[in-house]
Backbone:
């Protein structure tokens, strides 16, 4: 048996078309190469020195805390928003849907400027925020959470909205005939149906928040111990000791690989019921 | 606890204009082809859709009345609905699926589960309590769906083609059980189906729905012996001709005559069973049958232990013959044949 016929035998005539192989290979190499190039430049012998610096650990902690808080905020507000976008039919819903995607298309740095105009000291909501928090939002820890939420929440909303759209309305109707109130249907039937999408959306949202740089830098600043996250720390290090910068990418890469590896097969399949 | 619907609803081009009533303990079948409005009717009663005009009533209480501004939400109607595609909650075990209704109506978790266990036991499903819907066969899922509907102690039951999605073997099993459980149910049951067998076996009264309107209603015996429309005739396997009767001779619209014993004078429908027609390969001489006509065979199809032969002639007819007859008479499409039927086997009754 030739290799070709063995392949045909396994795939039943529906194997991989030759057409897709070269571009797919080029694509994967293109995506992998920068990461590899950076890894080989990591000054392994200097790791001890770099990681003894407590600023690194503080930045990592702030990164994790702020990104998790941003993800939580995105879930709390984004999932209901996704439901509204998917299910409510009123005039102007298209406009609202476009508003949700603004942060997706806006360069994050511009997003930072926009946040200033809205929530900064002289911004639209500057005074109310000051009276509630007793401080200004920019250059504070809550500020970077706000910046990350602004940039990352649309990833969650868009993912979950699609799931709400295709979720089986039939079982919701069945729940209604069984006496379940609308809120009960939402919590006990609809949410479980879209749970895989909520998890996938949360991971995408969290990844975006963890890596967020532009809006965070502009709106939160780069204050050690307060608003300096790992990405903004990398900027500082890159300006002074460029050779050390690749080493700082390690924790984020490890976190990313562990999360994606753990979730990929279980949850990150195309969302279906 | 009588359930009654009378009113109209428009869905785009489609208009459903219906009036029907189901008495307590009665199983009413709504029989009709796809697109006749059966599911729309069920959604109206369930409260998943509102009437444009008219009213839905259950034991005298208004559920839907556009003119009076009354619309009771599906949650408040206390109707048990079994859907064609069972619609079990995929993320809940069978026990919690069945307990969902009582839970939604404020029963404590423990009490709701007890009630669910009781219903599962009554329907012989106890062994399935711990399974997820994806681990059930089609027949099991439909049984669980019935248990879930009954566990709410509904005032009336609505069944949407409960057996349509099942294979033939399972269908026969579930049908028998369903007959039993519906017999034990005290409230009215409305069963929507496109399968005449299902309607005949499960219902004591049948309403035939075509293109959004009721075209016939009556007992299974009435429907099968006196179909009022070509659709109903086809469903119950009868040859149906429209014509005008004088004495016992019916002049059929489109040509030909039929002699029917006891024909009422005037505009009539004439029905003949396929098995009451005899097929000959030469003109039958000396036959006592008063109806004899020529036709040619258009197709043959197996039907149980018989062959159903479709013929075209002055009177189009389907005729049931034995497989042996097909071989002996060398019946084949295009073959010229003669058909005969006794006047006593032809029933004529006033057209609606």
Residues:
């Amino acid at each position: 048996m030739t290799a070709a016929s063995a392949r045909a035998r396994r795939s039943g005539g529906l194997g991989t078309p030759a057409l897709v192989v070269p571009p797919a290979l080029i694509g994967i190499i293109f995506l992998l190469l920068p990461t590899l190039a950076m890894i080989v430049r990591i000054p392994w012998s200097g790791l001890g020195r770099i990681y003894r610096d407590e600023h690194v650990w503080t930045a990592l902690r702030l990164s994790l805390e702020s990104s998790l808080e941003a993800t939580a905020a995105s879930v709390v507000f984004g999932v209901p928003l996704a439901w509204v976008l998917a299910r409510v039919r009123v005039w102007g819903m298209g406009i609202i849907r476009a508003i949700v995607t603004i942060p997706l298309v806006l360069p994050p740095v511009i997003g930072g400027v926009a946040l200033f105009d809205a929530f900064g000291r002289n911004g639209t909501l500057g005074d109310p925020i000051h009276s509630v928090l007793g401080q200004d939002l920019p250059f504070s820890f809550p500020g970077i959470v706000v910046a990350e939420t602004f940039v990352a929440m649309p990833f969650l909303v868009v993912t979950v909205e699609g799931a709400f759209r295709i979720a089986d309305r039939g079982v919701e109707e069945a729940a209604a005939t069984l006496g379940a109130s609308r809120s009960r249907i939402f919590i006990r039937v609809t949410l479980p149906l879209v749970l895989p999408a909520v998890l996938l959306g949360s991971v995408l949202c969290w990844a975006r928040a963890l890596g967020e740089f532009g809006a965070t830098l502009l709106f939160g600043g780069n204050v050690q111990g307060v608003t300096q996250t790992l990405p903004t720390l990398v900027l500082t290090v890159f300006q002074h000791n460029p050779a050390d910068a690749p080493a700082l990418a390690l924790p984020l890469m490890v976190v990313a690989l562990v999360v994606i590896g753990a979730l990929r097969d279980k949850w990150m399949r195309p969302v279906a019921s | 606890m009588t359930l009654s619907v009378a009113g109209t609803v428009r869905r785009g081009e489609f208009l459903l204009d219906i009036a029907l009533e189901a008495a307590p303990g009665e199983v009413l079948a709504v029989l009709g082809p796809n697109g006749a409005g059966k599911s729309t009717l069920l959604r109206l009663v369930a409260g998943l859709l509102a009437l444009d005009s008219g009213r839905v009533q259950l034991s005298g209480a208004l559920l839907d009345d556009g003119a009076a501004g009354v619309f009771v939400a599906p949650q408040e109607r206390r109707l048990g609905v079994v859907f064609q595609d069972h619609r079990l909650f995929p993320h809940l075990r069978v026990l919690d699926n069945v307990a969902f209704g009582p839970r939604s109506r404020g029963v404590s978790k423990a009490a709701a589960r007890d009630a669910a266990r009781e219903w599962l036991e009554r329907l012989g499903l106890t062994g399935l309590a711990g399974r997820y819907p994806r681990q059930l066969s089609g027949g099991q899922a439909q049984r669980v769906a019935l248990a879930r509907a009954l566990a709410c102690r509904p005032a009336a039951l609505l069944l949407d083609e409960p057996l349509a999605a099942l294979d033939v073997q399972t269908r026969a099993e579930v049908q028998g059980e369903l007959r039993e459980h519906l017999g034990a149910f005290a409230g009215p049951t409305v069963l929507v189906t496109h399968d005449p067998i299902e309607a005949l076996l499960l219902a004591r009264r049948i309403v035939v729905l075509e293109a959004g309107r009721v075209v016939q209603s009556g007992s299974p015996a009435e429907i099968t012996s006196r179909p009022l429309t070509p659709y109903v005739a086809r469903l119950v396997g009868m040859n149906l001709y429209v014509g005008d009767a004088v004495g016992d001779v019916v002049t059929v619209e489109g040509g030909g005559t039929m002699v029917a014993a006891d024909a009422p004078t005037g505009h009539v429908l004439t029905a003949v069973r396929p098995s009451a027609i005899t097929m000959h390969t030469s003109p039958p001489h000396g036959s006592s049958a008063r109806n004899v006509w020529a036709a040619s065979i258009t197709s043959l199809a197996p039907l149980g232990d018989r062959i159903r032969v479709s013929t075209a002639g002055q009177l189009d007819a389907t005729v049931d013959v034995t497989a042996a007859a097909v071989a002996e008479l060398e019946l084949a499409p295009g073959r010229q044949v003669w058909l005969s039927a006794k006047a006593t086997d032809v029933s004529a009754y006033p057209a609606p």
About this structure: The mean pLDDT of chain B is 92. Residues 89 and 97 of chain B are 6 Å apart (CA to CA).
